[in-house]
Amino acid sequence: MRTPDVEVLWWDGCPSTERALDELGAVLRELGLVDAQVRMREITTDADAERVGFLGSPTILIDGRDIAPAASNDTAALSCRVYRRRDGRISPTPDPEDLKDVLRRAAAQEVS
Amino acid sequence: MTLTIGEAAPEFELPDTEGAMWASRDSAPATVVVFTCNHCPYALAWHDRIAQAARDYADQGVRFLAINSNDAERYPRDSYEAMRQRVAAEDWPMPYLHDATQEVARTYEAEKTPHLFVLDAESRLRYAGAPDADYDDPALRAQWLRDALDAVLAGVEPARPQTRAVGCSIKWKP
User: Fold this and answer.
1) What domains lie within chain B, and their CATH numbers?
2) Under an 8 A CB cutoff, do A80 and B42 touch?
């Protein structure tokens, strides 16, 4: 099992980061990915958001890929990101089960 | 926040999504001013609870006014047209008002979406803050808001007149 690269893009104007990190940490521990380093990248300007395609805070990249597909009306902006939990509720953080699925797949990939 | 509990709330008049004008001054025994928007997950997560409170208190004459003050240039999902589309697609028990100049948000010193202000029959501020303690728990049913409304309707001071608003920042124009 490899250790995936985990990066969290965040914006200071949104209060979701702490909860997202708590949920991400819990999932990493549950999967036994205790060596995973969570890299933090702050997005501070509209230009930054546009340049990196930042769809809102937090955006979690696993091996460089966004864990959530972009919605058709998503635009790059300094804002809180809208996620949908598996039970249909809207949430400022991704469903931990979705996180778990993505991380499990990434960890199972063979190292090339 | 410097708009203090007990102080007369600023008056306003704003258009809803059909262009009809709504004034803050009214004969209602209580008015709930809700700063909200389309793009914020906190506002969206709490929306159904606030809407249900609007339905539940309608027969007591309580009036709910939802207001979107966000800068639509930088946040197109909060445009007037997007507000119209949302109201047309959903069952809203309250008017959705457009604060295009952001003047109302400024005078209320609204900071977040959602940010709630409960006014009594004399338009005095009786509660300001969040709908309840956790956006992620629908079972809370906007209880802080309901507690404030019950107190105002009973003619007493809310036991919890102020809470910390939690959500996205109001998106001010540059």
Assistant:
1) 27-155 (3.40.30.10)
2) yes
